[in-house]
Amino acid sequence: MRQMQAHSDQTPSALQGVRVLDISRLVAGNILTHALADFGAEVIKIETPNGDALRDWHVDGQSTFWQVYCRNKKSFAINLRKAGGIDLILKLVATSHIFVENFRPGTLEKMGLSPEVLLETNPKLVIVRISGFGQGGPYASRPGFGTMIEAMSGFASMNGFPDREPVLPPVPLADTVAGLYGSFSVMVALRHAEVSGGRGQVIDLPLFDPLFAILGPQAADFEVTGKPRLRAGSRATDGPTPRNTYQTRDGKWIALSAAMQGTAERLFHAIGMPELMHDPRFATNPARAENIEPLDEILGNYFLGYDRDELLDWLSSQDVTVAPVMDISDILADPHVIERQIVTRMPDGMLGHCVVPRLSGTPGKISTSAPSIGEHNLEVLASIGVAADEVASLIDEEVLPPRDPCP
Fold first, then answer.
1. Which of 144, 197, 293, 328 is most buried, by CB atoms within 10 Å?
2. pTM of the predicted protein model
3. Do 23 and 46 form a contact (C-beta atoms < 8 A)?
């Protein structure tokens, strides 16, 4: 596997000088700050002496989620149940630009770190409050796990096949979408605070709202039709038709989409059935959507007559939008993935994804591996003027763990 080309140390980092305190746990907050860290922000992970729970998500003994999403970050381990721990956090807040948390609504206030206290300490601070359902409303106090959101947002009800049970995503989808929305929102708030002369502010970032937002015009469709969107497998019953996965003669799979009328015409010509364009059942996209069963039967029978690779070569040559269904073994061997170094080897030797997106002037870079617990305690404390004798006292008082970091 080729390694991502290293940028010179002289290459500017877009977020150099931006300090982020990430007091969140698990996925959404780590996705948010992962995006910032890749572009040069100093992300300080505030962890308990036992570490972020994301470290416990193991695959064959490896904390792969932690190693991928916490690269380029620093770890500061501290006991927030001690008064001295809260005092240290407030000292860090005074030097920071962004503060990220994902406790249940009300918990931050009980800790003595309410937004009012944080903004009094640093009036330009951008505070991101991640939760399941938001800081207000009847569900605010519910635990904010992504599975609940994926079930309640409408995602599971429309995901899967019509004759089977609703299907949850195989990845932490709600957390990931919220994290990406969050990285955008902090940049909006930071620009207001720094460029527009404004003050800091609180970003209420539930998992529910972003996932609901990306699921298409559910509400508009329901108002128009009076019916919820039903599970349709890989089909798009209210979008481009045909759109599905199809098995080929050698047992492999392809995915096809006729997003425009011209695409459907090219498909029908490519399979040697141009007369389908004159069949009233298939002449237009709405007609094809209403008659998807017979159309899929025609296409499925055709594709079963050919091996996948010869089929892909032929359809691609006819400008039909078709692709192989690939798993990670296929992806790692794919020439496009290799050429663009979409998968890269990180400093700790683990494979991870490249920095996304690609900026021409201020590209992101992977500088360091995910930290061990408390690896940067002394560095972070020194940045806020905590002397060595104070560190020793804080360790004795169990505000800080012993000096030797944990893995």
1. 144
2. 0.91
3. yes
